[in-house]
Model the fold of this input.
Amino acid sequence: MSKNLTSRAEDYSKWYNELVVKADLAENSAVRGCMVIKPYGYAIWEKMQAELDRMFKETGHQNAYFPLFVPKSLFEAEEKNAEGFAKECAVVTHYRLQTDPDNEGKLRVDPEAKLEEELVVRPTSEAIIWNTYKGWIQSYRDLPILVNQWANVVRWEMRTRLFLRTAEFLWQEGHTAHATKDEAWEETKLINNVYAKFAENFMAIPVIQGLKTESERFAGAEETMCIEALMQDGKALQAGTSHFLGQNFAKAFDVKFTNKEGKQDYVWATSWGVSTRLMGALIMTHSDDKGLVLPPNLAPYQVVIVPIYKNEEQFDAVKKVADEIIDDLKERNISVKFDKRDTLRPGAKFAQHELQGVPIRIAIGPKDLEDNTVEVARRDTFTKETVILDRINVVVEDLLEEIQKSLFKKALDFRNSHITEVEDFEEFKKVLENKTGFISAHWDGTAETEQKIKELTKATIRCIPLDSKKEEGECVFTGNPSNQRVLFAKAY
Amino acid sequence: MSKNLTSRAEDYSKWYNELVVKADLAENSAVRGCMVIKPYGYAIWEKMQAELDRMFKETGHQNAYFPLFVPKSLFEAEEKNAEGFAKECAVVTHYRLQTDPDNEGKLRVDPEAKLEEELVVRPTSEAIIWNTYKGWIQSYRDLPILVNQWANVVRWEMRTRLFLRTAEFLWQEGHTAHATKDEAWEETKLINNVYAKFAENFMAIPVIQGLKTESERFAGAEETMCIEALMQDGKALQAGTSHFLGQNFAKAFDVKFTNKEGKQDYVWATSWGVSTRLMGALIMTHSDDKGLVLPPNLAPYQVVIVPIYKNEEQFDAVKKVADEIIDDLKERNISVKFDKRDTLRPGAKFAQHELQGVPIRIAIGPKDLEDNTVEVARRDTFTKETVILDRINVVVEDLLEEIQKSLFKKALDFRNSHITEVEDFEEFKKVLENKTGFISAHWDGTAETEQKIKELTKATIRCIPLDSKKEEGECVFTGNPSNQRVLFAKAY
Done:
């Protein structure tokens, strides 16, 4: 393992790229824009999945699985959605390879195995799912349908970055069908709340809930709700979206139902998703120049025990104590790893666990055995304390809770101190130059203004916050009247 | 829901197809050969995943994720593997659609967005993974690598059937790297044992462990171990495979390591997988003419409570008792569903739960309330008993265990009574005509004989059983000497 990370101050982007690779989270693959998620990174994703899945099921959702491929004719059925994704999709045109007669031993596409209709590798599954729902829905009795799927999707992005923007990524996509507009709206909000709770309680990432403007909306949606987070470099990151689709997909796929009054109506829809992008948000919210910092709720293992010893006898004595601690912690549902590798010295192990963000490190050496103590070190603050062996369970349990809370509070303080109310455009540009996060400003509500601000500053409207109070004002760019502040930022 | 299933005796294949759809497990999609796994079917698959994942982790494996696409040049690097899969793969050739100028509003492949190198949608991931492992392995210290991935794969099958053979399917694929041949062999056997245990203890499916013959082996493997199950119609089903890959992939991708003696050597490999095909095996092992029969360990809910009532007051009284039962059962980790739908009569509910294979049904009506009893019905045997309310927890808990064991025993008895030792080829053909399952016969060990038998009878060698005792004999087809019996059968 090479020694030092580039510091965040030096080059934030380089720091991020190095950290993802050095902490063994992910790496680029032989396929342009596609990543390999390594076991340590995948273990974090699995914890996210488990918790989200639990929350979805608790709110009445079930999982299902729909095809990877979308026939072109279905793909183009909802016009806006098709337009939105056509420019960045992988297309299957053939179903066989054959030995190339001009290039022995090599394979080429078999020209005779051309598909009659091209298949799009799903960039999102509304089309294939609504085509399926058509067969599931006849009456209001068949509603609501509350289905989620965990899947891979492909968007042919030209500039990719590990976790943040990759051609293939993993996500969950919920697709629900409802008898009424109100119910579909409630679902849209319910899920955005689930996402916000998950981000705050599990990822320790404070988020702002809001609505997207028309130009930032999901292609095919009538409204898009989102949770927006702020990264350490002052850029925003959209961490999850929940779309109210109105009757657009039901109309595109002719999905009608008989309502309680016996009349035919189109079904109301929502869709919602979070992806492996959340890994990027997690990293850029908490980590530091020494490496990854993980909230205990998502750490693959929350505690690592490093034995300090000079000979086998010492190792055995340390291991005996470690085993007892491990048993005790496991009983409290705390995950522990005993790092018994004999190919690395303790210092190198310390550095690796620091780089990989293990929340708590316990070191046990011969001196500790004599004193009946162990050394407990906290990753997020680098503080160490000597703990009496008898109290180790309680101390570790409390400390994990304390770390989880403290990471959230730190991120919240940072975020709150990086929202600047701005009244004129010069100030707007200055705040952006200083990378100081969200700008809360009045906007005249037009797509033109939004577009011009984006062209001039690269800042976009991240959301119209749900909790923003009504307030008369003037648009920061045009001076036209406005009655609400929106949040601008540069974004990932 | 349409009433009756075709009976198994009438048309086994039709019975299967109808059952999958009517029990709400899966259906065909708009994409040729690709299925939609519906929530009830997916819930069973999730239970399989959870248990297998637990078993993999318990034996030291970690999950990771590798790209969906395999560049053609990597795909063809291991010759046999490439040949084996080239004829049935989906190929991505373009990365964009555009509006067709000759067909307004419709999309077509953008001819300018042609990929320089075609991408194969993974039919299996050895190639992309071994290309990745090359970067992970330098020394024996980096070994073993024990990685699994849960993923979708695509094989362009021409004749597809829900779960049994679909173009896209879900599976797990383990890919391990080892310093020695012995270790790789141990891993191959370990996993085959995991699969056998899982099949028997969770799916209640008895399996025979064995080795595949050369012609039935995985393309690129040196040996393939398998678990073979017998379906009710006398056909065999390969339920899982574990491959010893030797150094084939390490050589194809130049993956060398420095061993403990400081010398360079190629890495030893295994790969292994089970897929949604297991759903087919589950259905065809236990189900009957009334529908699905599920082992309690895999049922989405193990118990369903159906209230019998004529008015709201009765419903409330029944519900009160049901709620108490639910609480008690949940405490014992028994999953229960209270079927309170007011759109269906009890009889229709009974029929649906029978069709969907819920192991235990509890019915509660006004008469039961008076007597302090409930009616408990068992799906697999159709037996009913009246149970005193106080004893319901114990009765249900014991009954679930009893059903799980009884399903296994029934399947085991069936399987054991459907293995026929055969000494000559006329008898061989007669046994096959009567659909009586496995044929245990001597074989001269040549691919020619195997091929001829296959051509004449459609039966293949399912495996050379691990526990088959050495025994001198004569090949059932050629009369040439043989020292071991192998298992023949027609197969799914």
Observations:
- Chain A has a mean pLDDT of 96.
- The domain at 419-489 of chain A is CATH 3.30.110.30 (Translation Initiation Factor IF3).
- The first strand of chain A starts at residue 26 and ends at 28.
